[in-house]
Amino acid sequence: MLFLDGIGLGEDAPNTNPFAIAHMPTLTNLTNNQRWLKSTGKQRTKRALFIPTDARLGVAGRPQSGTGQAAILTGLNVPQMTGKHYGPKPDAQTRAILNETNFFKQVVEGNKRAALLEAYPPRWHVGINSGKRLRASYQQAPHAAGLPTFGIENYRAGEALSGDWTGEGWRTHLGFDDVPVYSPYEAGLKLVELSQRYDFAFHSHWMTDLVGHRGPLEDAVKLLETFDQVMAGVLDAWDDRDGVVIITSDHGNMEAIGDRRHTLNDVPTLIIGEQKDVFEDLTDLTDIVPCMQQLLLP
What we know:
seven-stranded mixed β-sheet, Alkaline Phosphatase, subunit A, single chain, globular, alpha/beta, 7 strands, 38% helix
């Protein structure tokens, strides 16, 4: 599962929606050459199934990361259970739900292997260990399953990837000159290589949500075009007979640059692989886990 925080299906608005103007040949090839917009609708190609997905879940207000990510990873309507959309980090109610059940836990309890493929720098681990930083829902879920959270040594050893896919940020923003840096295409190849070590692998990219809040549009376009190149590597390396690649998000945001708020739009869910039809009836974020259970935990 490739999770992109804060991407929704918005209007065909070139001045505010990067999906309306970004050059994304790899991804649009999977959606019948349709851009990822509100008007796109459900799309099917030989290799992929694209489904606009409800992140609102029948709860008033704007969807948020804490409860949205928890819904993706539990299959439960967490906003409804807690009475609200909440984020960015999960509140105590949401953490309790994640600690009780989530797909990482179910995979581990089924004697299968799972991992969060993203590595985190030393200061993140220091913040977590000191209790001054909360885990995001997608970080809390594997932690509740007893799985390790990768750090810089795992990244150096090629056992994990950075959140920005390429690792460039570890050098330019974090000052680690000795860590690997990949091209986007190479990062896609690496994602597949790492995923093949596990039955369920999850990678999160958070910069889409950050750029959605802050802009500018040019940065959002660059992110999408980088991800398209990452996916070119993924598709070249991925054997569709081996399982599915799932791309999804927790709420809309980056499709409306300048608003700074999350949107009420559907989010895109793209399923790649021969078993994509298992997801045919998916309508909202709570439907993802039952489909994954059907494939991995029959």
